[in-house]
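User: Can you predict the 3D structure for this chain?
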Amino acid sequence: MADIYGEENVLTERYLRDADGDIVRDPQTGEARRLDCVVVNGQCGTFTSEVTSPTANKVDQIAKEERIREQGGTFVENPNTGELIEVPISNIERME
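Assistant: Here is the predicted structure, written as structure tokens:
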């Protein structure tokens, strides 16, 4: 993705955080959710992407992310600037 959007626009392995910048944990499992890839680009907006195998069952992971988002975990921190960026729900891309 960095080759498409530029390395400075691709954030990897970012935890979902609340508006105060605190990592939000799933109230059911106690686990946090780390997004694989967040693209921040003025031309295409902000989006998240998770690359997974065609057969991986993502039901539990999606449910965990939804619970975290319900608790306010809708931001990631840009490690280069410290800025909090609101992100949409993860887009899961299945690739072999």
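Strands lie at 10-15, 34-41, 45-52, 75-77, 84-86, 91-94. The chain has one domain: 2-94.
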